[in-house]
Structures are given as structure tokens and as C-alpha cells.
Amino acid sequence: MSEPKTNAMRILEQNKIPYESHSYPHGKEAPDGETVAKLLNRDPQSVFKTLVTKGGSNYYVFVIPVLKELDLKKAAKSVGEKSVEMIPVKDINKVTGYIRGGCSPVGMKKQYKTVFGKECESLPIIIVSGGKVGLQIECPAPELVKLVGGTVGDITF
Asked: What is the DSSP letter of 92?
């Protein structure tokens, strides 16, 4: 039996972007990104996490390698804000339509300004959440950036 498609998968298909989905075992809590990479037997450099922030009255999405940390000063600069801060976990579903650990840069309730870490430029494919805990999607980074109207920047440390 195949897994039901997520909104992110449907959007990739509608836009004719090739992807491969990967499921991994998980408990009640979403594992951290490094664990996800191990479970998928993938290089953690190619597995990216999706972080949602707020700056002023706007929300911003940052997609960075799981082993890196978001540099809030660089992130704010990349979107033209004085500062940005992570949104509270309790607000993730309300803002994105996704839950913690299953937040994909594709198919959020609204298309927020999205910045991918520059690390994606040197990779043929990246792996991001497929829209639910336990599911990742692997696809070409340039096509993913273009699909979400994203930009690429130096936003990590």
C-alpha cells in the first residue's frame, strides 16, 4: 500500500518537479534532522530543515542544513528586517498548516518569503520535509527554490 500524498507532494507533481519520497520510523516526537539523515542513510549535508520566523508583522521561512544553525542577524538582513525571531512551536500549525517536525517549505497556508541556505547551491538534490512527520522529499534544489519563489543566502553559522 502506498502512502497517501501530502500537499507538498501534490504541488511538486502539479509543477512537474521530480521528487522521491522517503519514510522513516518515528515515535510521538519528531526526531532531530541528524537522526532523520541517519534513518534515511543520507549525508546530513543534504538534509535541510524548515524554520519559520517572524520579523515585524511578517513571517519568513528559512531552509537550512540540519547540522547548521540559523544566524538570526544574517537571516533578518536577507529579508530586509531589523531582526527576526523563531515563532513559538505552538504557532507553527496556525501559521503554516504544518506541525513541528513536518513543516515543508512547499504547500504552506500562505507563500511566505523563503530563503534557502547557500549550502544548497553546491548540491544536486536536497531533502526537506514532505509535509508530515516521518516523510521527507528529495528533489533538485534549484527547482525547489524556484517553486516557492525563494532566494538563496548566507544565513547560517
From this structure: H
Name the H helices within 5-153: 7-14, 33-39, 72-78, 92-96, 141-147
Domains of the chain, residue spans: 7-151
Given the DSSP bridges, would you call strands 135-140 and 125-132 parallel, antiparallel or unpaired? antiparallel
First vs last Cα of the chain: how many Å apart? 41
**Whole-angstrom distance, CA of residue 104 vs CA of residue 8:** 7
| Tens-digit pLDDT string for the chain (157 aa) | 456 899 999 999 999 999 999 999 888 778 899 999 999 999 999 999 999 999 999 999 999 999 999 999 999 999 999 999 999 999 999 999 999 999 999 999 999 999 999 999 999 999 999 999 999 999 999 999 999 999 999 999 9
Please give the CATH topology (third level) of the domain spanning 7-151.
Answer: YbaK protein (3.90.960)
Report the 10 Å Cβ neighbour count for 13. 12
- Secondary structure of residue 143 in the 3-state scheme: helix
Residues near 72 by beta carbon (within 8 Å), at least 6 away in sequence: 53, 83, 84, 85
Q: Do 6 and 101 touch, CB atoms closer than 8 A?
A: no
